[in-house]
């Protein structure tokens, strides 16, 4: 059952709409390189479309009614958008859930040191990466440092043409005979992912000319002068090193996009856009944008926290339909797309894939009935009835879609947030966009698949389900 390539079915009008959507996506991807930046952009977009803060509504004493739009933000890294439907929330919601975090390098709490006449920053990698890929590429530094008085220093260094970039050195090929004998997992080890940030010492003729670590001292002076930041402020900072530079068209035919963080901001963007364009939903439509998926969805802003459940209770209370039993019914009766990326078939590594059950660039949005590894361990494994309804929904909407598994059996595996929300008893399936070079510093997607995911998510939010 080979699926058609979406490009072959587009009219000129379709192509024009596709280019509009994907140009917006490139800007989004280039501007939102951390979960905080992504959350801020999502909130800004929502407010421009008439969404109001749940805190504002709660303080005003107003009730929510069908058609109202509300959002909630938790610790600036988890965002939930609700568009109240005409049906009681107890009957369920239509939920698009994606994650805003991506693999990266986080600065350690005490990162700055000097060695070999250079100043460096010590890091700890976040999420699954091939560590050697992060050496000898330009890096940017994004994030915040919070001072003791509560004020915040914001960083986004390395993105503007006039900005300096940072980076991790690699060993020259002339001296690499021992390094090249190592396994790929230890060619560059995690403790050696140290970012070079300077090499110019403090004034040799200054009052502290006998002081050691003059390069480190010079960097501390620079941080103080340019950012008002003391070294101790690193202790309460969230600073992330990410690949520097914007997302760009990929391929001579410009049919693809290369950019950092497409896992999973490609699904964040398409879900957010679909939510913004949702009109008069029957079931309350929800766009759930979480954090910490790449490290197990733990923590206060991860999907394993109770925040989504708590905010749904708050929204139900504001509609006048809350009780503990009604909340449980709402969650169980809901339908969800766990919007996360899948692996695209790569002809350069064909042996990792089973061709009948893999996703291909350009064939539309992807459904993974199950993810996991070692006998589906850790997977949600969506039920057949739900998949049958989704097939009809998307075919009726003219959306191009395909099904896939994450590589050959026993080749590896992965997971999403699907299993967590499935704990409520709701119908959930993994659905998203296929990527080449997933979890690499630069990932590749098809513009057609982005467009079809957006169209598919729109159709999903408008769905009315068979009971």
Strand proportion, as a percent range, falls in 15-25%
Major sheet, described briefly? 9 strands, mixed
Stretches where pLDDT is under 50 for at least 5 consecutive residues are none
Radius of gyration: 24 Å
Structural class, by secondary structure, is alpha/beta
What is the ordering of alpha helices and beta strands? HHEHEEEEEEEEHEEEHEHHEEEHEHEEEH
Q: Tally the structural domains.
A: 2
Tell me, rounded to a whole number, the average pLDDT: 94
Helix content: 25-40%
Q: How many separate helices?
A: 10
Give me the CATH architecture of the largest domain, please.
3-Layer(aba) Sandwich
Distance between the termini: 29 Å
Principal-axis shape equals globular
* Biggest sheet strand line-up: 1-2-3-13-4-14-18-16-17
CATH class of the largest domain: Alpha Beta
CATH topology of the largest domain: Aminopeptidase
Provide a concise account of the structure shown.
With 467 residues, the chain is of the alpha/beta class. It contains 10 helices and 20 strands.
Walk me through what this model shows.
- The protein has 467 residues and is α/β, with parallel strands linked by helices.
- The chain has 2 domains: 6-102 and 260-461, Aminopeptidase, CATH 3.40.630; 104-243, Roll (Aminopeptidase i, Domain 2), CATH 2.30.250.10.
- The protein is built from 10 helices and 20 strands.
- It has a 9-stranded mixed beta sheet with strand order 1-2-3-13-4-14-18-16-17, with helices on both faces.
- The protein starts with 11 loop residues before the first helix and ends in a 6-residue tail after the last helix.
- The model has no long low-confidence stretch (mean pLDDT 94).
């Amino acid at each position: 059952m080979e699926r058609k390539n979406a490009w072959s079915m587009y009219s000129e009008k379709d192509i024009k709409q596709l280019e509009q959507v994907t140009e917006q996506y490139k800007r989004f991807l280039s501007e939102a390189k951390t979960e905080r930046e992504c959350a801020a952009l999502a909130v800004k977009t929502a407010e421009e479309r008439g969404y109001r803060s749940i805190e504002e509504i709660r303080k005003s004493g107003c009730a929510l009614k069908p058609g109202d739009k509300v959002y909630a933000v938790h610790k600036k890294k988890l965002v939930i958008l609700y568009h109240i439907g005409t049906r009681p929330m107890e009957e369920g919601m239509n939920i698009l859930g994606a994650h805003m975090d991506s693999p990266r390098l986080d600065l350690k709490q005490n990162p700055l040191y000097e060695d070999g006449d250079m100043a460096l920053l010590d890091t700890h990698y976040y999420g699954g990466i091939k560590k050697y890929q992060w050496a000898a590429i330009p890096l940017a530094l994004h994030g915040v440092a919070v001072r003791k008085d509560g004020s915040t220093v914001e960083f986004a260094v390395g993105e503007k043409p006039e900005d300096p970039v940072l980076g991790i050195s690699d060993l020259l090929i002339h001296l690499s005979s021992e390094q090249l004998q190592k396994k790929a997992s230890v060619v560059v080890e995690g403790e050696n992912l140290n970012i070079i940030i300077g090499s110019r010492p403090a004034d040799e003729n200054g009052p502290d000319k006998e002081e050691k670590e003059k390069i480190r001292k010079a960097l501390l002076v620079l941080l103080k002068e340019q950012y008002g930041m003391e070294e101790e402020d690193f202790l309460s900072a969230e600073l992330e090193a990410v690949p520097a530079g914007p997302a760009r068209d990929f391929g001579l035919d410009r049919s693809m996009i290369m950019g950092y963080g497409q896992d999973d901001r490609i699904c964040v963007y398409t879900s957010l856009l679909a939510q913004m364009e949702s009109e008069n939903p029957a079931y309350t439509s929800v766009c759930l944008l979480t954090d910490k998926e790449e490290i197990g969805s733990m923590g206060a802003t991860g999907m394993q926290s109770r925040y989504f459940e708590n905010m749904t209770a708050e929204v139900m209370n504001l509609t006048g339909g809350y009780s503990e039993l009604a909340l449980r019914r709402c969650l169980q009766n809901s339908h969800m797309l766990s919007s996360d990326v899948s692996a695209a078939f790569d002809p350069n590594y064909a042996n990792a894939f089973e061709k009948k059950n893999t996703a291909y660039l350009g064939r539309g949005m992807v459904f993974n009935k199950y993810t996991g590894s070692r006998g589906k361990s850790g997977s949600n494994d969506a039920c057949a009835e739900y998949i049958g309804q989704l097939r009809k929904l998307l075919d009726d909407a003219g959306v191009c879609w395909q099904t896939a598994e994450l590589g050959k059996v026993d080749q590896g595996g992965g997971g999403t947030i699907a299993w967590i929300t499935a704990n409520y008893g709701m119908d959930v399936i993994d659905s998203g966009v296929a990527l080449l070079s997933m979890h690499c510093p630069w990932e590749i997607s098809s513009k057609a698949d982005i467009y079809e995911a957006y169209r598919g998510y729109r159709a999903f939010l408008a769905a009315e389900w068979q009971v």
